[in-house]
Every structure is written in structure tokens, then in C-alpha cells.
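Hey, can you fold this one?
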Amino acid sequence: MKTILPILSRCVALLLLALGASTASAAHIAVKLVAESSQPAPGARSAVALSMTPEATWHGYWENPGDAGAPVTVEWALPPGVTIGAFRYPVPERLIVSGLMNYVYERPYALIAPLSVAKSVKPGTRLRVTGKLRWLACSPTICVPEQGTVALNLVAGSGAVQPAMRQSFDGWRAKLPLPLGQPASFEKRGESVRIAIPFPRGRPVAKPYFYPSTDGVIDYAAPQTVSRRDDRLIVETKAARGAAMPQRIEGVIAIGPDRGLSVVARPGTVPAAGVPIAAEGEEGSGGSWRLFALALGGAILGGLLLNAMPCVFPILSLKALSLARSGETDGQARREALSYSAGVMLSCVALGLLLLALRAAGTTAGWGFQLQDPRIVFVLLLLVVAIALNLAGLFELRAIGIGDAMTRGSGAKPAFWTGVLATVIATPCSGPFMAGAVAAALTLAPVAALAVFAGLGFGLALPFLAIGFVPALRRRLPKPGAWMNRLRRILSVPMFLTALGLAWVLGRQAGVNPQVMALGAALLLGLALWWVGTRQAEGKARSWLPVAPALAAAAALFLVLPAQGGGATVEGAQQAEAGEGSDARFDETKLAALQAAGKPVFLYFTADWCLTCKVNEQAAIARPAVRDAFAKAGVTVMVGDWTNGDPAISRFLEAQGRSGVPLYLFYRRDGGVDTLPQLLTPGMLTALAA
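Sure. Predicted structure:
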């Protein structure tokens, strides 16, 4: 019966589809055909999508439905010169009903297919695309075959994509499995099928599960065990009864929520099982808890290292020295330390909540996502300029604990807002341990992910927390005096340098004109703050009035700045693609071709707002010795610029278990891939070339 029941279920599903009992107007799964571009360009390729929205408690099926069910079928009626390829399915979910395993979608999903228009089609030609669809919609108690006709009215044109449609397609593509790029192997041992899937040992994976698109190879309802051995995921499960092993097994290995890799496995040797990874429902004894512990530890260590960044160090230094002032009691020191830590950790958790909400909405945001918006960079530029002028002694701002309140004032409120400020200006940075920790957090449950972001804040607050709670550390700090005012002014220098860096980033993102306008706004703000300082020295009431017109001008500029960059960074990438630069622009197709040809590739991902990236580029990647070594060894250098938030790069980073930059990969001639640390040296790169 266990063998016959799935066969009968599949036959019944196909029979129901053939009968077509329900129409789209009364469908339990609403279907809509959507074009990425309403003006597809002749000679180019765009995409169409079937947007599928099941009713509550209903579900649709993956391309291989499992023991029961049926996938979507379509019969196209296309105008001359138009072709539509096969649909790509997102990573499915599992549903067991009466002992039968179903590969399904219980939430809204989309199938994406390439649409091509021949070069011979003249611009302005109207293109009517229609398709007759059949699909199966099921609830826990009943299955209903549904059908309907979908249509699109297109016009051959420029291929332009509207921003809203680009966002929708980017969100749908983010849930498609990405090509693994390396061959897997499988073997049948007794009644078991074992598959070895290449997967770097340092990259996180959560609740892995292998979905076979090759039918009749494994027992779908049988449990799977997944383990890690070196740089392989080892999948073990029961073979289908009487199955003859094919020459290749295709499928998808899920590595996290809505994330997966397309796998092609051929007969070969499979290593022994390694360290087990917890299956769904077993997190308390296995891999998810280990992943959480590693992510939390990396976040704490990464947050601790953020204190050395030039924009955070001045604030931390002055706040720490404030605890050394005479008359400070242990209780006051502890209260200030706790308030500062609360400001830091709550800000990190709020940032984590925003990041998780954006990703749940379908965007591919990662750490530093807000800096891909030139308007946010502009706001940070003004904030850092104000802090630098404050540290230079131009004016005082006691409300949030900078300047005079930082060195001579006291209280929990200033300490709290100083912690918030330190977090805000630390967000452009991504240092060692942090990128991997944040990426791992995004594969965990929301509560665990927020705990990791809180750990990041704890690491950032840890030095000040230690000074507040360990009197011996405070006693080692220099005694307060006039030298503190000199130090405060010296520490304004790295803040001015940070402002200069942000201005450079803005110019790279939005172009020269917005950069000049932003510098003008910063100059106007500086003049207003100088006036404020003068009024404060004279003891005048409402000393902050001169800031109002400067803030109004800044708000007006904020409204006219573009939300997405389109300046020099994009132009530089286009030059690289055209061969005018020394590095090739990141392109997955070109990368795959180079790998297939057995050529070594050094691939790195960067952003103009990433300090660690810029340091590595100047100190290691751009060194003449490294470039000469790469040239002699025939190493292709490929760069992915994430300054303006390229969705293709976001998806690639996610496939590597990362949510931000930097990321450095070296593809060897033998097909292996090395993930390099986030701090590079010239010797490390020349050794790879050798």
C-alpha cells in the first residue's frame, strides 16, 4: 500500500487536471501573469512571472510535487518573434498528509520564465501574449483542479523596467534557488541514497533539506539526515523501492528560509557522514543552537572591534574619560555605563527589526543597507560634521551627552543618547567576524536573530561597560584636567575625516552636483553652529534659533536627492565591464564561463561606504606586487560594487552565507573555492596566485 498509494494519488491529480473542474474566477489560488518590462527590447531578454496567491489553508505545488499533486502546466499562444522559456520555481516547503510527502507552497509565490523578443521585431510592434494554465489547488481535506487564461499586452521598445516592477521581480528572484556552480556526487548503498554537495565549511546553513526534481529516485516521505564533512553537505535518505539509479540526480538543497541551491549530482564517491545538522524540530540538540552560538559570539567580537573605527573611537574615548573625573562614585559610573549600553543595544535591535522587516517584504537588504540610499549618506554627513564641530569646541550640545556634558556633565540620559549616536555612526562599518555573524542571524528565527543584533550592541558597548563596572580600570585612566579639552579637539580630526569620506561616498553614488550641494549644506550648517556657539558664550536665550534655516535648507536638499545612486560608481563599473579598467565587473555568467575553462578568478565585493573594503583595496589588492603576481598567473580579477545595492550582488552574497561586504573569494583552477578572511595582506594574495 505504501508503494501503490503515491502512484494512485499522482494519477488522480493528473486526471483532475485533465478534467479542469474549476475556472480562475473561482480559484482557490489566484493567478496573475506579470511582465518585468511592458516594453521588451528586440534582441534582448526580460522575464515574465506567474504570481500565485493561495487562499488561507490552501497550497500549490512545486515542479516535482512529491508523492501527490501536480505542477502548473501552460499552453502559450505567442506572437511571431516572441519566445518564453521554462518556469523557474522558488524553494518549496514540505507538507505531509496521510503519510504522503508533498512539496508545496502555502504562501504567495511566483514562477519566473525568460521572455525573448527577436531582433527582427520592429520597435512599436504590439505583442499579445496569452497562455492557458492548469494547476492543482489543495487544502488538508480536498484537491480542486483549476484552470484559467492569462494575457499580457506588450509593445516592443526600450526594455525599460519600472521601479515598482523591478522591486517585485527582485523579491521573487531572491527566493529562487541559485546555481551551485560545482558538481555534486551520489551513490546508492543498500537501500540508501547518499549525496555529497559542495558547501564551504564556514558558511551558515539552517534546516537543510534536499528536494529532488528527478522523480522516482528517493522515498519522498522517508526522513533525511544531513551532516557536514569538511566542505561537503552529506545527505542520506532511503531510496525509492525498485528505483534504478539514473546518470544524474537534480534537485534543490534548502539552506535557510526561502534560500536554496540548485544541485546536479552524478555517480561518484561520497565521504562518510560528518557532524550532524539538526533537522526541523530538533534545534535544541543540534546545528541551529550551534549556529546561534557562533553568530552571537561573532557579533559580540565584531561589535567590540567597531570601537576602533575613526567615527566611534572619539565618542568612546571622551565618554570613558568622563568617568575619570573627580567626584564620580561607583554607583554613578555603573548607571552611566548601563544607560550607554542600553542606548547602543536598543539601537542595534531596532536596526535588526528594520532589516528583518525589509527582508520579509521581499527586499535583499543586508548590513549597511541604509547607506545605499544617498539621502541617508547626506544625513550622516551633516550629523558627523556637527559632531566634529562640537568636538572642536565651536558649540556645546548638552542634550545628548556630547561636548561639555560628555566631559563634565553626568546623568543617565546623556549616556543613553551617546550610545544611540555611537550606533548610528558605526553602521557604515563592517569588520572581521561581523559580516558572517549578521548573515548567520538572518537565517535564524526572528527572536534568535534579534538576540544576535543585541549581541552586536553588547560588543560595541562592552569597553565602556567594563570601565563603568571595574573601578581598577577607571583608576588607570588619566586624571581629568585642561589636557582633556585639547584631546577633545584632537579627536575632532578623525570625525572630520569621516565626514570627508561620507562626502566622497555621496559623490560616487549620486554624482558631482549632489555632492557639491551637500557640501554647501554642511558649510551652511557649520556657519549656523558657529553662530549658536557665539550666542551660547553670550548667555543668550534660545541660542539654537540660527540652526532652523540651515535645517530647512538641508530638508529641501534631502527631498531632491535621488533615492538610488547613479553617479561615478556606476560609470566606473560600466568602464570595467567595457574593459577600460583593470578589473572585470561582476557577472555570474562570465564567472561560470571562467570556471568552466579552468581559469583562476579573484572575486571581491566592495562598497564605497565600507571602510574595511577600502583599506583592503589600497593595502593589499591594488599593490603592484599583487597585480603583477595575478597577471603572471593568469588570474582574472572581478569586482562586485555594492555601493548602490545591486540586487544580483545581494542574491550572490546570500548564497555565500553573507549579508554584507567585504567578501573575498578565490576560484582555483581545479574548481575549488577559497573564502578569504576579511583582512587581507599582499603576501596572502601573492601566495594564492602562486
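The longest strand covers residues 126-138. Let me know if you want another pass with a different chain boundary.
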